[in-house]
Design goal:
Strand content: 25-35%
CATH architecture: Alpha-Beta Complex
CATH topology: endopeptidase fold (from Nostoc punctiforme)
Number of helices: 6
Largest sheet: 6 strands, antiparallel
Radius of gyration: 15 Å
Distance between the termini: 23 Å
Strand order of the largest sheet: 4-3-2-1-5-8
């Protein structure tokens, strides 16, 4: 058995604050990490740290990008244990996606419509917003059933992973403190 990590955060960016204000949700971003120190996380987010309007599939870290700017982001880390085969399949999927990252785009309409629980998916399936991507991975690799969190998934819904023993919260607090504790 191996573990990967679902990371929910609230960075404090203008976009994060707007999403929180519109939805009432505390956590406004979701990522996946295969590393127990969260040194590399995968998500759909800003391609450039200072430009919230151009997004896509990204690697995130407290060493660079938006997460470096917001090292004190309020974070919850959920450990999800899966079989070695599922872990390797997820690792291969993420590696392939990152290698082909230019073909993936940010699902701006999906994010906007998630406020009203309206699902907007790209026909080709190459557009995601952060929690939509994380949920897709959870469904794709059999951690949760298709539609278990509903048709529209916001980061807060991913806290439900702890129900039924699918995930365990291992940390709450500033992202940089989690990194420091792990090193």
């Amino acid at each position: 058995m191996k573990a990967f990590y679902v990371v929910l955060s609230r960075t404090g960016t203008i976009l994060s604050r707007m999403i929180s204000k519109l939805t009432g949700d505390w956590y406004t971003h979701a990522s996946i990490s295969l590393k127990d120190d969260l040194s590399t996380m995968y998500s759909f987010g800003r391609l450039w740290a200072y430009n919230p309007w151009i997004g896509g599939f990204v690697k995130e870290s407290v060493e660079y990008g938006t997460m470096r700017r917001f090292r004190n982001a309020d974070t919850v880390v959920i450990r999800v244990v899966v079989s070695n085969d599922k872990y390797l399949a997820l690792e291969n999927y993420l590696t392939t996606m990152y290698r082909e990252r230019k073909k993936y785009k940010y699902n701006y309409w999906g994010l906007l419509m998630s406020k009203w629980r309206v699902r907007v998916r790209a026909v080709k399936g190459n557009r995601f917003y952060c929690s939509e991507f994380v949920n897709d991975c959870l469904e794709r690799f059999g951690v949760v059933r298709q539609g278990e969190f509903g048709k529209v998934v916001r980061p807060m819904e991913l806290l439900q992973l702890r129900q039924g023993g699918k995930g365990q919260i291992i940390y709450r607090g500033a992202l940089c403190r989690f990194i420091a504790v792990q090193m």
